[in-house]
Each structure stands twice: as structure tokens, then as C-alpha cells.
Design brief:
Elements: E1 14-16, E2 19-21, E3 28-30, E4 36-40, H1 47-57, E5 61-65, H2 70-74, H3 81-96, E6 101-105, H4 110-114, E7 125-131, H5 134-142, H6 152-165, E8 169-171
Parallel strand pairs: 4-6, 4-7, 5-6, 7-8
Antiparallel strand pairs: 1-2, 2-3
Length: 184
């Protein structure tokens, strides 16, 4: 991510506070680490529905739907999910250089980010899960177009896992999309 501009061969820099440091020669450059906010949820929880209102409500953050990179990263075959998640961490670190935090909307779990190479370049990571009743999830998934994956049983199981794992839960069964941001 950051490389020393003095050393041969290339040396990767190490994060220290808001600076990236070369362990060989001491070269430094800015390397800000801002918080990362992850809004997770199983399919049908409302992640896509809240994207635009959330982006509008959080002008000091950059909001992404992680699904946007799936097709480009699958273009050459199967998707390497760790590389996919690490790419998003790299994007978040790049955004942090402009003193802005990133909000990722996607089916992510805290343990999926821990060992990734770019994780060390990210500040604290905060998770919230969007959730609805299983009945609402079934209805939402059944209402999707046929080209969308339905796998209802898998999504219900993932939703249950998220409920057990992540303590901050936003119930989309009661909250309209415009009211799901922390500010309103």
C-alpha cells in the first residue's frame, strides 16, 4: 500500500499513528487511519434500500455498496473473497487520506477483516447489522427478480449468525429507510 521512496529494493512502510514509516531508512509519509463503518446484513435486510438516504445523511463519509466490485473482480473467473474484502479496505484507506471515513454496506463479518493485509491501515472498525423478521426477509427475497439469488435458507441462517455476533442492530421492520441513519 505504502512503499519507501528511497530504498532499493522496495520496502513496504509500516503504520504508526497517522504516519507510514520505513523500517529500513526511517522515511515517512502521511498514512491517516480513519474509522471504518460497516453496515452488514443478510440479503433482504434493506442494505440497498438505505444506500441513497444514508449517503445523503452522512456527507462527511463516503458510502459504498460492496457489491459494486463483485462483477469487475469476477471478470476473470471466480472471486477471491479475501482479495475482494482487502480491496475495500484499501479503498477506505485511500479515502482516509482526505480525512473522511468510509461506510461499507455489505454482508461482512468482523472476523473476515481481521487478518487482511490492509486492515492495519484502517482505524477502528464499527459494525451494525440491519435486520428484519424472518417472515419479512422471505417475502422480500421472494419478491426479487428471478436473476437474483434467492437461497432463502442460507440467508436466514446468515441473519441468525449476525444477530448472535453483532451487538448493534437496526431493525428495518420498524424503521423506514430515511430514518436508519444515526442522525435521524
Amino acid at each position: 500500500m505504502h512503499y519507501c521512496q528511497r530504498c532499493e529494493p522496495a520496502v513496504g512502510l509500516e503504520p504508526t499513528a497517522d504516519v507510514a514509516v520505513c523500517s529500513r531508512c526511517g522515511w515517512t509519509e502521511p498514512g491517516r487511519r480513519e474509522p471504518l463503518y460497516v453496515v452488514t446484513g443478510a440479503s433482504g435486510s434493506g442494505k440497498s434500500a438505505i444506500f441513497a438516504p444514508l449517503a445523503a445523511a452522512l456527507p462527511d463519509c463516503v458510502v459504498f455498496d460492496v457489491d459494486w466490485l463483485i462483477d469487475p473482480m469476477k471478470a476473470t473467473g471466480s472471486l477471491d473473497w479475501d482479495a475482494f474484502r482487502d480491496a475495500w479496505l484499501s479503498v477506505a484507506h485511500g479515502i482516509a487520506q482526505g480525512r473522511r471515513s468510509t461506510v461499507l454496506l455489505g454482508p461482512l463479518m468482523p472476523e473476515q477483516l481481521v487478518g487482511l493485509p490492509s486492515r492495519r491501515w484502517i482505524g477502528p472498525v464499527h459494525f451494525a447489522v440491519l435486520d428484519c423478521t424472518d417472515e419479512q426477509r422471505r417475502a422480500r427475497l421472494d419478491a426479487r427478480p428471478s436473476w437474483r439469488e434467492h437461497a432463502i435458507g442460507e440467508h436466514l441462517a446468515f441473519a441468525a449468525q449476525l444477530r448472535r455476533t453483532i451487538s448493534t442492530v437496526l431493525h428495518t421492520r420498524q424503521i423506514r429507510p430515511l430514518n436508519t441513519s444515526p442522525n435521524g
